[in-house]
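Subject: Predicted fold for Glycosyl hydrolase family 13 catalytic domain-containing protein, 348 residues

User T.R. writes:
Posting the sequence so we have a shared reference for the thread.
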Amino acid sequence: MPRSDNYEAIVSRGEYGVLGPEDDCWPPMAGMVPSASDQFDWEGDLPLKFPQRDLVIYEMHVRGFTNHESSETKYPGTYLGVVEKLDHLKELGVNCIELMPCHEFNELEYYSYNSVLGDYKFNFWGYSTVNFFSPMGRYSSAGLSNCGLGAINEFKYLVKEAHKRGIEVIMDVVFNHTAEGNENGPILSFRGIDNSVFYTLAPKGEFYNYSGCGNTFNCNNPIVRQFIVDCLRYWVTEMHVDGFRFDLASILTRSSSSWNAVNVYGNSIDGDVITTGTPLTSPPLIDMISNDPILRGVKLIAEAWDCGGLYQVGMFPHWGIWSEWNGKVSLETFLVTIFISGCSHLGI
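User M.O. replies:
I've generated the structure tokens; pasting them so everyone works from the same file.
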């Protein structure tokens, strides 16, 4: 792939877990404006395109992977810290890393005192996207360097170095909801642009909550699905990622608010009485992704259920190219997950 200079970053707080001016958890954020001179040299990097059946995937939290002193990395808790450990992963037989959410999010979103543990709460996992086109800036050792370009280049460097070692990079992406919460949540972006377009709303304006996180992204609205496709294409073409794992992917199959077959397909459908949130057998968004000339060539993995009770494991509309996360979780895995979640306040 050629050199690239199309990118987007969010400029806000520069250091993970540190409050903004006057102890503000939501300080003003701004988008950077790219310069023609700001280019990243990919050194001829090309996608590896391993068959999915041959993948040995290591699911990874970028900060948690190297933040503890035992990792002995020069740049703990960052994209560069992961690069330092790529050779170790290669020795283990790993040929694909799946990065837990790296889209820009606010780890201080739920910042409050925890009287039980005597410390403060963080959004450690990051499943609460603020900007879908920007890498998490505070996972970068560069901080606010060059108005966020440092973070972008560090993410690209991670992908390039992984590819050099024969390791693909898949992103865990969260298109089922955003950080704007319900009808009482903060207005950060979509709610201020067109609330009824970007979110699935009830007749009186309440937010449907199939995500369990306050809102549901209106994925099959024509505008929203084009936004999602554009975003995915961006991460493939500009950031060179090899695929995506879609969090609560069943939401991507639900009908949009004010469903209208003419608006969605261009013609009416006999007997079309679909209501908001109804599961669709041929969801337009999944159709678009599956038939996109760029996206159909990358890994597409669905977490095939949502918090509204829609369970599609073995039945997700796949167009012959999607994979699924298995829905069965062992007791041991569940207990380990709970333990790790309880320890997340340590930042490890």
